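User: Show me sequence and structure for the first protein, then do the same for the second.

Assistant: Starting with the first protein.
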Amino acid sequence: MFTGIVAAVGKINSVTPLAGGADAGVRLDVDAGGLPMADVGLGDSIALNGACMTVVEKTATGFTVDVSRESLNKTVGLDTTTEVNLEKALTLAERLGGHLVSGHVDGLGVVRKFEPVGESYELVIEAPRDLAKYLAYKGSVVVNGVSLTVNRVEDSATGCAFSINLIPHTIQVTTLKHLKAGAKVNLEIDLIARYVERMLSLKS
């Protein structure tokens, strides 16, 4: 489990295809940036842009993970050398500064607007139609591993546009500063909403 509070911005230094042909995944060598690695061991979980990955090797400057083809098909930003938001798995001794996050990407959104408004930025993302029912005013959503609060929701026939206000601190300490209209982002809906939908869908 994670909280959606980014601990550091790292960088994917290299992407190496794994053996197995077109259906195989890739191995990522990740520079951990400012993420403390002293307590990280092999098999531990680290979220990269909101996707939970398993550490298979520690390096002098970071760590290595293997990403399956299924994960590559369901996410964005894990197949190229780029900056990534990093967060180590939550421990019971830590504050839950964001909200409960599983690290499982539910779908890809598309940035429709990213513009300054006063001292902050307005981020508008169009989510797939099947995720619309999980997005609510003042509810929580994860965008590229960052726990955020939804300020507005507008449904349409093809999807659901939701608006987020990004304060300067969030812009400064995450990769969201690089977003542009048309960019794809990893989305994870609220864990509680997922279970509520499941309970309501069952007939007694």
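Switching to the second protein now.
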Amino acid sequence: MVQSKRLFDFGVASAGLVVLAPLWVVIAIAIKAESRGPIFFRGARVGRDGKLFMIYKFRTMVADASARGTRITTRDDPRVTRVGKFLRRAKLDELPQLLNVWRGEMSLVGPRPEDPRYVALYSLPQRAVLRVTPGITGAASVVFRNEQELLAGSDWEQVYIHRIMPRKLELELAYLQRRNFWTDLFLLGQTLWLVLAPHRANESTQEIY
């Protein structure tokens, strides 16, 4: 399965990079027109077997966002630009991760890669998610599509660490128990559906599997 999954990922990522190139140009122009700074955001994430890699996204915040706050985006985060808000709602900020998929650092479907700061808090059973290649989308990505809306108030990090992160890992571990080509296709379809119909973003785990 691993080899066929990699071939599928590489083929889709290659086609996506070509077909979506005009859209990338439009997004890049919009980002640069609103605020100074790079077009892309690069952040350290923990990949398969605990290996660090740099994840790519379109920049959705002001250039000096890291100096103004945390590494997680919270609800009504003032660092997010107007263009960034649109890109986040439409999930277009995630498109550059096709580069990560093309390079083999990520898969189209798999556990979402986490910041090293939070991976350090994983229990031994939870670290099982690091045995596979992380994905652009997955079970937890679908359920927590609007995760930043849950992160508000001064205790947002405690909410993330003690409530959201454990639930996300529970979903990812459940996915690993039953993953195959068809579950991956289903999650890809589910993700596309939720992007096109955002009112369906709060699907339950039962509806996903």
